Structures are given as C-alpha cells and as structure tokens.
UniProtKB/TrEMBL annotation:
It comes from the Bacteria. One of its GO terms (molecular function) is uracil phosphoribosyltransferase activity. The lineage of its organism: Bacteria, Pseudomonadati, Ignavibacteriota, Ignavibacteria, Ignavibacteriales. It comes from Melioribacter roseus (strain DSM 23840 / JCM 17771 / VKM B-2668 / P3M-2). This is Uracil phosphoribosyltransferase. GO terms for biological process: UMP salvage; uracil salvage. Catalyzes the conversion of uracil and 5-phospho-alpha-D-ribose 1-diphosphate (PRPP) to UMP and diphosphate. It catalyses: UMP + diphosphate = 5-phospho-alpha-D-ribose 1-diphosphate + uracil. Its EC number is 2.4.2.9.
Amino acid sequence: MNNLTVVDNPLVKRDITVLRNKDTRPADFRAALGRISYSIAVEISKNFQLNEIEVVTPLETTIGYELQKQVVLVPVLRAGLSMVNSFLDMIPEAKVGHIGLQRNEKTLMPEDYYYKTPKDIGSSVTIVLDPMLATGGSAAAAFKYLKERGAGESYLACLIAAPEGVKKMYDEHPDIKIYTAALDRELNEVGYIVPGLGDAGDRTFGTF
C-alpha cells in the first residue's frame, strides 16, 4: 500500500527500542518519543510547498522561503498530546486543534466528545498526531470528522502502526499519507499492537 512511509533512520530505531523497553521510565519515554516526533515532522515536511520571499541579510538582499500553506496540528486526545511540542518546535507557526474520540458502548463505533480546530482548516495542511495506529478505527474516524469540516491536504503521524490499521486507513482514506517510525507484526486478541510498546498514553503520562 502506497499510503505508508516508515521513517528509516538509525536514531529513530534506537529510540523505538527505548520506547519498547518495559523498564523505560516515563521521563525517558517522553524524551525518546519527542526525538522520534522531530524525525517524523521532518519527513512529513518534505511534502510542503514554499513561496519565495525577499530577505535582507547583513550584506545584501537575497531570496528566502516561507511555507505556502498554514499548518494545523490535530492531536487525538490524550496520547496525541505527547507529540505536539516536537512538531511545534519544528513548525512554530503551526496552529493546534484537538479532537477527542471515545467508543459508543451501544454502537461500538468511535464518536467525538471534543472537537476544536481553526476556522481556516480547509486551506491548511492538516497533520493528525496519534501515536498508535492499531485497528485504525480512531484515526479513520478523526479524518472523517476533519473532512466533514473541510480539511484538505492531510497526513497522519504515528509512532507505531499495525498492518490492520494501515489497511483500514487505505480502504477508508486512500488519500491520507501515513508516516510512522515502525510497522509492527499484527494486533493481538485484545487489539494491542505486537510487539508494540504498550499503551503510549499511560507510559507517557505515568498512569499505568
């Protein structure tokens, strides 16, 4: 499936190993997650278009560049918050929206309990931040809500993806490019990615 890019970098592979280790402390987990997020942000930014502008150096006027489109980051609550600061460090002019999803216990389908994005999302580049692409249900739902509200060019940034989630995204949103640090083997019987790294939100915020 041509919707997936795995960031193949020795430093990323080192930090994924830190994340997988069950004995990694939350502070070290957050640090490694942040470094991986920097690398993913750089890979996604290769798709950005630029406008030429004039810039005056101490010696002369020359050509510089600015991003052609506004960038909107949309972390999926709660775990997606862990990736925001790294992306903002790389794209400081980005705006940040939020989307919260929970499972409806009657329909078993994801539904949003919180949604807030900038009004100009339709003319922006949207990057959804969601560390674990497992079944793909939450990510697919997030993009459905975003598209209904006018989102255009969009990307998904995650730490680890399962083949099942990649396929669901391809089936429901073939236009969305996924960037991840690792493509793992499969989902287990309870829907966790294996070998995986456990619950990214719990390990980031120390709530396990």
